[in-house]
Amino acid sequence: MQVAEQDTAPGTAKELGAFLERRREQIAQHWADAALFRTVFTVSRDEAVEACKAVVDALADVARSGQLEDVEAPGFGTVRDQLGRMAAARAGAGFTPAQIAGEVAGLREPVTALLRAEFEDDADDERVTACTQALAVLTATLRLVIMETTVSAGEELIARQRQQLLEVATPVIKLWDGIVAVPLIGTLDSARSQVVMESLLEAIVDQRAAYAILDITGVPTVDSLVAQHLMKTVAAARLMGAECIVSGIRPAIAQTIVQLGIDLGSIITRAGLADALAYALTQQGIVVSARPVTEAGPR
To answer: Where does the record place the STAS domain (predicted)?
Structure first.
């Protein structure tokens, strides 16, 4: 009995593949009105139909290969390309991976109806049942493929948004001709420190800056890792031909650096951003003088 099942399973899968190929037009017409496809193809229904045909052809290839339960089957590559962007569009509209998988599962119903209609006059109930079960397995694997694609797309979106937030949180400001500054606020970690270095080096090249100021007034704590990142940034800026100045080192941070035994002797430091700017301007031969602030009264 076990041998017979192994013999008939590949035949059933191939029969399912042949059915999908024969009925690709009807299946595509049914699927084209599904929300999963209409989300992307909002203007032309014909484009939705063609996309559906490509998916049906891919599923037919999977069925003919007999790899109904293999998410890595070659035919699923096309499915990922076609349905992946549709799933991404649904995810962008606020749908969860489970909801999208439910929409994918809904694609099975019209195909099952066409399958039963085609075998309506067939007296071999076992054959009809076997094909229906094979279709259920194929669509279940399809759901898994789309869920994996949706989750992966969601992770990529989160990574891109996180990168964008890091870039926004670390702006490079041009203070004067040849002088740029990065006012840092919040906690520094490895990822953000890398963004700081890349943004600063790009600004040095774009602005042809001779001086770069790293202002850490808004950084609550500095540990050995953060200090190492700052020193690497200073060294990289020097390699680009710019002198780097660190400003805003508060008393608590200064004590921490001393306790950690970190040597910042080779780094130019100033109390605040204004002092760092004054130093950079003076180094460029620009005279900086402090003017007293007076209240302007009526004359």
So the answer is: 169-280
